[in-house]
Write a structure and sequence with these properties.
The complex is a heterodimer of chains A (119) and B (111). Chain A is mostly beta strands and 119 residues long. Chain A has one helix and eleven strands; from the N terminus they run E-E-E-E-E-E-E-E-E-H-E-E. In chain A, strands 2, 4, 5, 6, 9, 10 and 11 form a seven-stranded mixed β-sheet that branches. Classes of the chains: A mainly beta (119), B mainly beta (111).
Chain lengths: 119, 111
């Protein structure tokens, strides 16, 4: 079964450093997302991306964050200057909305996540 | 801004019995409601969904019930199996918009 692949699985960084988290969405999917989960808290939406541009973003997704689809397969999340509170599990997700329309629900396929620890 | 709330952080159920996981929401504009299951070290996996125009959707052992007037939905698992032990997230969205998740309920099915 096709899956969303994320790298690295765990990254430890110093506060103020730049981090890039990478994702390979399912190949025929058109919509890409980043979510994060701080330990013990809910899974929070960060950003959605379609047709090479951001389609929606949350208030968490400030100027420190950026997303990019540098080639036909990768989808990256960059955090420019990490803060302690950025420590979380970051999940990439993708979907192909037209196929989801049998139910209409926006069904996302998630990767296993990248754990970011900021020291 | 907790638009989707799961008030029970954990639930323990005996194998073979029914598991009922509850979820409340505040945004009456949501069109779809979903349940995801998450095992440790894995991403959330879609389980079942329901449109806001329905009040019940069933898929094998899993049934989701929606009470729009109460802004409440529940997931029933019958019969519960040890492999169902996971964190269950309730989620909701408007058509074509972001999916908003609850905080999750950790289900433990005891053999």
């Amino acid at each position: 079964e096709p899956e969303v692949t994320q790298t690295p699985s765990h990254q430890v960084t110093q506060m103020g450093q730049e981090v890039i988290l990478r994702c390979v969405p399912i190949s025929n999917h058109l919509y890409f997302y980043w979510y994060r989960q701080i330990l013990g808290q809910k899974v929070e939406f960060l950003v959605s991306f379609y047709n090479n541009e951001i389609s929606e973003k949350s208030e968490i997704f400030d100027d420190q964050f950026s997303v990019e689809r540098p080639d036909g397969s990768n989808f990256t999340l960059k955090i420019r200057s990490t803060k302690l509170e950025d420590s979380a599990m970051y999940f990439c997700a993708s979907n192909f909305r037209d196929r989801a329309q049998s139910s209409g629900a926006n069904v996302l396929t998630f990767g296993a996540g990248s754990r970011l620890t900021v020291l | 801004d907790q638009q989707v709330k799961q008030n029970s952080p954990s639930l323990s159920v005996q194998e073979g019995r029914i598991s009922i996981l509850n979820c409340d929401y505040t945004n009456s504009m949501f069109d779809y409601f979903l349940w995801y299951k998450k095992y440790p070290a894995e991403g959330p996996t879609f389980l079942i969904s329901i449109s806001s125009i329905k009040d019940k959707n069933e898929d094998g052992r899993f049934t989701v019930f929606l009470n729009k007037s109460a802004k409440h939905l529940s997931l029933h698992i019958v019969p519960s199996q040890p492999g169902d032990s996971a964190v269950y997230f309730c989620a909701a969205s408007r058509r074509y918009q972001k999916v908003t998740f609850g905080t999750g309920t950790k289900l433990q099915v005891i053999p």
